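Minutes, project check-in

Agenda point 3 was the complex the collaborators sent over. CS summarized: two entities, 597 residues total, and the question is how they sit relative to each other. Sequences were read into the notes so everyone works from the same version.
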Amino acid sequence: MLLYALLTGLIFGLYFALVGLGMNLVFGVMRIVNLAHGDMLMLGAFTAFWLMRVAAVSPVITVIGTFVLFFVIGLPVYYALVPRLQRSREPEMLSLILFFGLSQVIEAIVSLLFGNNERSIPSRTLGGGPVSIFDQTIPFPWIYAACVSVVIFAGVYLYLYHTGFGRQTRAIMAQREEAVTIGIDVHRVSAVAFGLGTALAAVAGVFAPFMLGSFTPSIGVPIDLVSFAVVVIGSLGNPVGTILGGAIYGVCLMLMRTYFSTLADLLPNLVLIGVLLVRPTGLLGRTVRHA
Amino acid sequence: MRKGFVRETALVLLPLVVVLAVMPWLYNNQLLLLNIVVFLVLAQGLNLTYGFSGYLPFGYVGFFGAGAYGFALTLMHTAAPPLLAVLVGGVAALLAGLVLAPLLRLQGAYFGLASLAAAEALRHVIANQDLSEITGGPYGVRLDVPFRPVLTYGLAIGILVLVMGLVAWLRQSRFGLRLRAARDNPVSAATAGIDVVHGRLVVWLASATAAGLIGAVYAWSAPTFFPEAVFDLSFSIFAIVFTLFGGAGTLVGPVIGVVVLYGAYNVIGVSAPKYFQLVYGLLIMALVLFFPAGLASLAVRRRRDG
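CS then shared the predicted structure for the full assembly.
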């Protein structure tokens, strides 16, 4: 029991880190909370549903295709919303409302077009049977999702630390004003970061049907809370922190499900409040916030 | 200072109360009228904390739900009269506000989302299967309480007068001025000798109590409900959007917001319920992108230009 909870907790943790990574990137670069993050994830799940279940496209191509498609979708969304938002008095606070509005629009359009039914994808679509690790039987799609998450973390790390654009992205995260002064095109870099955030959410969405069992157009807001909890446990603007946050969250979730199942829904909320009160900068945070 | 307070109450609060008091004779949809007052209280209650301390609680509905359940649990487990139970609802929300007061150490989006998480946590506790015996759990509550439409409507208007009176007073008093100084620049305000924390805490608790009282009245007028109904995130969002639309920190702004937007929502809700969520989302986005400081800001800008 305990071993199973820990093991599946770590696997889900890697997946939850993928869920939160895009939100972290967007907050780190633009100082806005993308409450439409969960809806981007839901759109990714729909894309996966059509590609894999209806059109029988292979999983690898589905992941790559979703990534590219949603990266491209993210760019115009950035230019339409974010520069205007950042000229207002309190962009951080107003971003919550603006993107909540966007999330409602996305949810409404999807429900109007496709209805509110629960959808799922059979787990054999990803191929392979249950896998045995340390004598524990784990469904294959969970392992698949965890592996894809790891590959994507590596990709994001390479982007941020080994490309020119990534260096500029980190410069904006660290000191926006100074980044502008030394001639970084903030809007171009931010647009790419927003596109990446959208793409990461959508790729996480591809695996949502397998990890969450099923999905509906209205999974957005609960997913946002989970992502925010994961991001805050780690630290904002710190990709390694997000992985740690995901792992802690995943293990806690599985322990709760195993031992206190009726309270499992409370978990993201309590973890979020607890971490914010005890250590507002997150576990790996360095900068001091002015209260 | 006195003069401004009298003028604002005479120009905004008094006519509003008269209109609300006369409405039941002109329009017989009691429930809609009560809902309008409920949203007026929620918008003005949110205005207290957002307009005067700058904190935007996404989980404001938590206090509303705490009030509704404070009322319901009192009636279910004691022989207290409903009026006393309404007070208990207000106290329940006040206590919730005290417990959550440490959240005021957070800023910006952190505070907004932490308060949302707190409201969700409270809902999960109340809706917990294991507590069904005490709270009714996921099956909700069915209260055996006398139906008194005139009394509940009057109570709601009374709560509205209290909250709006407080807003009007904060707009004119030195205490309100200190609050706004602390909102706009906490460091300078503290340097000037203003007790920043104390002021924030006072409006936060007042705001929580208002939501709790009106939650209790709401539960009295609709005594059968599920946890999801009184902890529905839309209450928070509506209150925020109405306040922002009219202009936070003003007395008349939230009233305009409720009248215009709640009116519009009801028209859409009746004529095209299918497109409600879509229009609602688009309205919110347009509001933030084009009038982030509310309609009242247009008037202020014109006065400055002219």
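Noted in discussion: The two ends of chain A are 43 Å apart (CA to CA).
Follow-up: revisit at the next meeting once the mutant set is ready.
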